[in-house]
Design goal:
The complex is a heterodimer of chains A (554) and B (175).
Chain A lengths: L1 E3 H11 L4 E4 L6 H9 L5 E4 L3 H15 L3 E5 L3 H4 L2 H9 L4 E7 L15 H5 L5 E4 L6 H13 L5 E7 H5 L1 E3 L16 H13 L3 E5 L1 H5 L3 H11 L3 E3 L14 E4 L6 H9 L2 E5 L5 H4 L2 H5 L3 E6 L13 E4 L2 H11 L6 H12 L14 H11 L5 E4 L3 H9 L8 E2 L9 H12 L5 E6 H7 L3 H6 L4 E7 L4 H10 L15 H8 L2 E5 L2 H11 L6 E6 L23
Parallel strand pairs in A: 2-3, 2-4, 4-5, 5-7, 6-7, 9-10, 9-12, 10-11, 12-13, 13-14, 15-16, 15-17, 17-18, 18-20, 19-20
Antiparallel strand pairs in A: 1-8
Chain B lengths: L3 E10 L4 H11 L6 E6 L5 E10 L1 H13 L3 E6 L5 E12 L5 H10 L3 E5 L3 E8 L1 H11 L4 E6 L3 E4 L17
Antiparallel strand pairs in B: 1-3, 1-4, 2-3, 5-7, 5-8, 5-9, 6-7
The chains are: A alpha/beta (554), B alpha+beta (175).
């Protein structure tokens, strides 16, 4: 059947199982939006306030569903507004398809109105990208884009479609099914080496990351941990992979990790790294981190093996598949002494740091909201202290429920991603922990949340400062608070009301309790402005490039 | 581990943007490029690149792995120096007074270079060879004065059965 490029785009989206896209119209995507209008029963389009919000929404959508998130933007500024969101998805290995319009092919390269070289700009932050200059290649390019974004280590892919390609017509041949990507076999020699390493270990430690979440391997990971009798520490991206109350779970490793997890990873004799990339925020000083134990690194991306921390053995493949084989081939192990040490570490006073009980602290806010949330409710964050507190104090029990910007550390990620995640899970109860700093960056999306009637509770941990930067200035810059004391007069509760949401403001624990009772009755956006002390700190903390020896506990 | 010269040969899709992709990858991952040559192969859909770089074992390992991840890259091969023929072309315009001409031509003969242009004030010479031979020639003629020169960068091919095939290099992890 003969179809225009814009119509082909819709057909391929439908073919790939896409029912929701996020985006913002503009001059060079008018034809695409015309097709979206005609096909609104097949593909739902969510209009945001800003293209950045749309990319973060598509990112959040992808994180909760495991499917590729799709974002559409016009040429020029529309396209450049996607850049932060694409980079964010790239660093967290999130499958994302960005579709941009561009000026017609004969206008390309002439600095035409709203023309930018978006494939050039996004080359370093996409897994791959395309500009389609031939209508006959459009359908297959789009299909390839989905395959690239979702296969192997997932990541963002951008397809730039000039206006004349959207208009041109060609014969479209539908395909009924996505071609299944064959999983490659696991290297037998490496498997044998891994089994030897695990068998020889007396103090094995499992370090689980986002790869466990993205390959849906949580159950297998627990089975594996039980089999080899090892504790599990997580990277921030891997936090939701292991339920908080699982006895083997030690929580987050790294700069703001739990004492027990950070201690245990330093004291073990074998780190079994599963779907993690040893970010500098997790390892601290690489030399002292790598000292004293061997590393068995399991990852789908060969380039991650020995990139940041030298691996004794690398096992390349889908994490779930590798764990399945290992579970089948390994005998049951028990490490009594190691296990006893871990139990002690978990009970250690430094592993159970508490904030003051008397005042409204970040810990008390997060723990209280946790009690109101359903087990599989979605928790999104922005970036900064509130993000770390959420990672430390929220009790995650379901994979794909923690939506946070790991690698890029994008302030402003929260609103968009929380909306996308909420929509991806059919308007499931969602809470966004944010701060006055981060929320100010992209609060415009409150309007989108209101329009779409999302059951979103926005909790602003409002300390009137840029808390994380202030914490570093306190510790490492002799309290010279350069540009972190905000002196802003924003009335967040009033702002929420004026956006059409419901705003609350609380100063005490008692007020919070009362407000929460009411807030959770709403199925539309609610904002709770929580006034907290400017000098609350994220602890423990291992200073940058430090090791467990340098840990700051109080 | 000490830095060493590394010659990487690649088979890549022959379309626009691929060169930028590869050179961009090198710069953002902080790998050096000493030289990069590219041209179409016997299959017009495929280009072959030869990249000369320096690095230790870590860099070598990362170069192969990062290149292999690129969608447009078909094959990555670190060329084994013992089994590879490497060639570069240089064109040098040498300042030549009448009195020096015979001497320069002797050098041209000795290096088996070719004269490609001849005028009252200069001789232009082309020379093909391994990097060390080119370096030696340039050093020798520089005493006469080099007006300008251009080097193509090295290109390399394996001997006899040592070939690049159009299949992604499989990578094993570890150590």
């Amino acid at each position: 059947m003969k179809l225009s490029g814009a119509a082909i785009l819709i057909e391929v989206l439908a073919e790939q199982g896409v029912d929701t896209v996020f985006g913002y119209p503009g001059g060079m995507v008018l034809n695409i939006y015309d097709q979206l209008y005609k096909n609104s029963h097949r593909v739902r389009h969510i209009i945001t306030c800003h293209e950045q919000g749309a990319t973060h929404a598509a990112d959040g959508y992808a994180r909760v569903t495991g499917k590729a998130g799709v974002v559409i933007a016009t040429s020029g500024p529309g396209a450049t507004n996607l850049v932060t969101g694409i980079a964010n998805a790239y660093l967290d290995s999130i499958p994302l398809i960005a579709i941009t319009g561009n000026v017609a092919t004969d206008f390309l390269g002439r600095d035409s109105f709203q023309e930018v070289d978006i494939t050039g700009i996004t080359m370093p932050i996409t897994k791959h990208n395309y500009i389609v200059k031939d209508i006959t290649e459009l359908a297959d390019t789009l299909r390839e884009a989905f395959a690239v974004a979702t296969s192997g280590r997932p990541g963002p892919v951008l397809v730039d479609i000039p206006k004349d390609i959207q208009l041109a017509e060609t014969n479209f041949v539908p395909i009924s099914k996505k071609a299944a990507v064959a999983k490659s076999a696991i290297d037998e020699d490496a498997l044998k080496e891994a089994i030897q390493l695990i068998s020889a270990a007396k103090r094995p430690f499992i370090y689980a990351g986002g790869g466990v979440v993205s390959s849906d391997a949580s159950k297998k990971l627990l089975e594996f941990a039980n089999k080899i009798d090892a504790p599990i520490g997580s990277s921030m991206m891997g936090l939701s992979a292991v339920p908080w109350n699982e006895p083997r779970a030690l929580g987050m490793v790294g700069m703001h990790g739990r004492y027990a997890a950070t201690r245990a990873i330093a004291d073990c004799d074998l780190i079994i790294a599963v779907g993690v990339r040893f970010s500098d925020r997790a390892t601290g000083n690489k030399v002292s981190f790598a000292h004293g134990h061997k590393v068995l690194h399991i990852d789908i991306d060969p380039a991650e093996i020995s990139k940041n921390i030298p691996a004794y053995t690398g096992l390349i493949g889908d994490v779930k598949q590798v764990l399945q084989i290992l579970c089948k081939r390994l005998p049951q192990f028990t490490h009594k002494t190691w296990h006893a040490e871990i139990v002690k570490l978990k009970d250690h006073v430094d592993n159970n740091l508490q904030m003051a009980k008397s005042r409204l602290t970040p810990q008390s806010i997060i723990e209280r909201i946790n009690e109101f949330m359903p087990k599989d409710g979605i928790v999104a964050t922005d970036v900064g202290q509130h993000q770390m507190w959420t990672a430390q104090y929220y009790k995650f029990s379901t994979p794909r429920t923690f939506i946070t910007s790991g690698g890029l550390g994008t302030m402003g990620f929260g609103m968009g991603s929380a909306m996308g995640a909420c929509i991806g899970k059919n308007k499931k109860r969602t809470v966004l922990f944010t701060s006055d700093g981060s929320f100010h960056m992209n609060l415009n999306e409150l309007a989108t949340a209101v329009t779409n009637e999302l059951p979103l509770i926005i909790v602003v941990l409002n300390n009137c400062v840029l808390g994380m930067v202030r914490q570093w200035q306190t510790l490492f810059f002799n309290k010279r608070y350069s540009n972190t004391t905000m002196n802003r007069c924003t009335n967040f509760a009033g702002l929420a009301d004026n956006f059409g949401a419901k705003g609350f403001s609380v100063k005490t624990k008692k007020e919070l309790d009362l407000v929460l009772e009411e807030a959770f009755k709403y199925t539309t956006p609610v904002l709770i402005d929580c006034k907290i002390d400017s000098d609350e700190k994220v602890l423990p903390m291992i200073p940058p490039n430090g090791s467990i020896k340098d840990i700051i506990l109080r | 581990m000490a830095n060493q010269q590394i010659i990487v040969s690649l088979l890549v899709n022959n379309h626009f943007g691929v060169l930028t992709r590869i050179s961009g990858l090198f710069s953002r991952r902080c790998f050096n490029i000493e030289s990069l040559t590219v041209g179409e192969t016997e299959n017009s859909k495929i280009s072959r690149m030869t990249i000369v770089t320096y690095g230790d074992e870590y860099v070598k390992d990362q170069i192969v792995k990062q290149l292999s991840k690129q969608v447009d890259v078909k094959t990555v091969q670190i060329m084994d120096p013992a089994n590879t023929v490497v060639r570069e072309l240089v064109i040098v315009k040498i300042a030549s007074k009448k009195s020096e001409r015979t001497e320069i031509l002797e050098a041209v003969n000795a290096f088996r270079a070719n004269v490609i242009d001849f005028s009252t004030n200069s001789i232009s010479v082309e020379l093909t060879g391994e990097i060390s031979k080119i370096d030696a020639f340039i050093e020798y003629v520089s005493s006469y004065g080099i007006i300008e020169m251009c080097r193509t960068g090295s290109t390399a091919i394996g001997r006899n059965g040592y070939c690049l095939t159009e299949k992604k290099k499989t990578i094993k992890g570890g150590k």
